[in-house]
Amino acid sequence: MAEQNKGTKILSRVLIVIAVIGVVLAGGWYFIKRDLSKPNKGNGKGSVLKPLIENKLKDMVIAASDSLYHITFSKFDLNVDSGYAIISDFKLIPDSAVYNRLVAAHKAPDNLMRMSAADVRLNKFGFMDTPEGNRFGIERAVVVRPKVWISNKRQEGSQANQDKESLLYKTFMSFFKRMHVQHTSVKNADIVYVNRNEAVEKYDRLHNLNIDITDFTTSPAAEADSGKSWTDVGVAKFRLATPDSTYYLDCKNIKLLPAKHQLSMAHMSLLPRQSKATFHKTYGFARDRIHLEYDKISLSGIDIERFMRKQQIYVSNYTVANSWVEVYTNYNYPLKKELRRNTYFHRQLQTLAFDITIKQMDILHGDVYFKILAGKSDKVATLALTDSKTTLYNITNNTLQKKRNPYLTVVSKTLLMNAGLMKTRYVFNLTDKAGGYTVSSTIGSMDARAFNELSRPLGMMEVKEGRINHSETFMRVNEYRATGNTDMYYTGVKVSLLKRDDDTDTLKRRGFLSFVTNMVTPNDNPRKNGNFKKGPINVVRDPHDSFFGFLWKGMADGMSSAMMGMYQNGKKADHNIILKVGKMISGPGRKADNVKNGVNQDKKRKQ
Fold it and tell me: How far apart, in Å, are the Cα atoms of 330 and each of 161, 433, 447, 457, 585?
């Protein structure tokens, strides 16, 4: 009995000690929450803990970066009960003297950065239980006017510094591995990335960006082959608004699986923010309005280690299951007065500061429509490339990769005007400063009348009958000239020239001119006597011409030479009717600068 009483007394004392500890903890937590709810004032009435937390946070950044960085802010407010926090006038500032010392000691990080933000706000944050485990959650995060400057200079021969530069990263990894942020807003962001790894520094600048992210989540991933721990990332919706109010870039259901070196995306779109009429009225010139929709995007073979170590993006395979693209231009407006040099996309790729290599990109199915509201006819012309399958090889601006293979190759198979099978091969020279590339294209048998949807509005010409049996084109193109040849085999081609009837808003046939045109134009190639007319290409590029405009001008030059029996001579004017279509596709004339608010050229002439 005595032993039992002794055990009871011990148990009672243990329970009393536990109760006392519980009271102390509860009281301590109550004090902490109450203290943190007070403003940060230095008059003895403010929070006691907030200044300690601020100083500890600043000390932690200094220690974790080997004194390379320090942070400053004008306001730090934290309320645990409501889950609210705000930091105002936040700055992350590097010490150049410390950086130079770390460089000399081969301990400097590859990236040197400066960061600032007017406000960083977190609403309703805290830990929560979820089916995936305990997770740090934030209902809303807002970053106002962030400015980020990153300079990348790889510090060779110092692998040890890789662990040093990841200390800041390790500080918040315990939160990051299990995190859920319902909504993130980044307002008026400015980002500058500087690549200092080549003889000439390259800059990427993004100004006044607005970004919205919905349902950002992270979860611990399976171990990779290297044994490293990775974190999977998911985003329900990402939206970037371009600063010129032109487009939204939307991405939906993004999943990054670093352990598997994969990224997937359910949908991506480039959405114009204005209607077609408003778009051109806003800019006042014939600018391409692009609308793009991509479905089921997957990237595999992503070299995560390479990105973390060298900030180089490398992807083995980039696949798009379905794509739809519309490029719309209004030729009632003049061309913009600017010279388009060094604007071909493979030349623009070389100017990016970010180091990118995509070994292969496949678009399994795509439809592309070039639509032009023509000035004279006031009708929409359409060039349709449908049911396309396209593969791009060696998309890169990496110096070493270009030494191994200096060519970007594009192979495409598509239906031209929904009528003829067209196979095209482009070979772009990534090292040619003149933007050189070659085009090899074949078109199978098709009804020539299929081109009426393009030629009627633009060239005021209609194909009445005829068939294109086969066509082969080869061109050498750069930013100054296109040369080559078109072999076009056709039979029974007859055309009608058109004029606009303003009273009925229709296009009417010009009988006499159509008769004369069919008399001088060979209806067959080879002709009845067996002679075959080749179509040489020799066109000088107007520096205002766009990439596609000049490409079609060159093709039209070859077609016109084959069909009209006229050879073109460089800068000399081209007078045949077929080449006129190509010139119209390339854009309205520079003399149209007096056109305002979309007034039709024909109407101006009548006044």
Answer: 55, 31, 28, 12, 11
